[in-house]
Design a protein that fits this description.
CATH architecture of the largest domain: Beta Barrel
Strand content: 25-35%
Largest sheet: 6 strands, parallel
CATH topology of the largest domain: Elongation Factor Tu (Ef-tu), domain 3
Shape: elongated
Order of helices and strands: EEHEHHEHHEHEEEHHEHEEEEEH
Distance between the termini: 43 Å
Length: 324
Amino acid sequence: MRVIGNLQELGPSPVPSVVTIGNFDGVHLAHQTLLRRVVEVARTQSLRATAITFEPHPIKILSPDHAPKLLTPLQRKVELIERTGIDLLVVLPFTRDLARQSPLEFVRRVLVEPLHAASVHVGPNFRFGYRQSGDTEILEELGHQEGFQVQTVPLLFMRGDRVSSTRIRELLTEGQVHKANRLLGRPFSSRGPIVAGMGVGRKHTVPTLNLAPIEEQLPKVGVYVTHAILGGVRYNSVTNVGYKPTFGDHRLTVETFLLDFSGQIDETEMEIEFLYRLRDEMKFQNPAILKVQIQEDARRAFKFFRLLKSYPQRKPQSSDRVME
């Protein structure tokens, strides 16, 4: 997949495109459906499958105080979009000048002149142009005028939940990672550099690996059954997202205890996949009592993974009833 940040990088483009447009935060199941449909149409017509996204998130420019925490930073979003088979990803810098373009200007300057769009595929709530004045009906009208077709993909629901980035954020904020994973089509994860902690775990409870502070969305403070991915190897683990209240006031941390592991970790980065919420974070009377609770958390996590292994056809993100 080719990734560009400026449409001028295309130069003369004789190959028409099948295009989709969106923020694609999370690259959840609805996004995947849309992106794969674009790929399918492009392949049948020997055209270029193209996705357009924006960096930063438009709300961060237009209304910074209301900007959501991202589910996927740009690098991760690019990786996930590439998996769908898209040929060209255009990451447009979102600026106030871009936001001021009328729907017609956006269509001509982005879709028609540089990309030669043959068809454009969007969701039913798609908005574009100055003050979001363009919708799917206007896009269809402009398509007739400028020579491209418009296909609107219907909303996607999973077990009564609408698949959307907003809904996934809500579920994560509530700690319902198993439901968020269902909408994502994979486990929600956070990744980053491994940093040294304060030595509290190694000294008083159990040794842990700590992620560097994360700016993106995290699940609700608490303890989770997780997978820790280090150097491409997936380890069963338990992760605490919280403030270590037993040891005083600390910044928010993501610290992970690897189950059934001994040895040295040489990796400098780690990814944590959140599978199931075990409990709230609590303040304990002393570290010894906390250590007993950690051992209980580990026991429940072992049970989770044993049950998960006995049902190999089920994906981790679907195991919402395993611990009931």
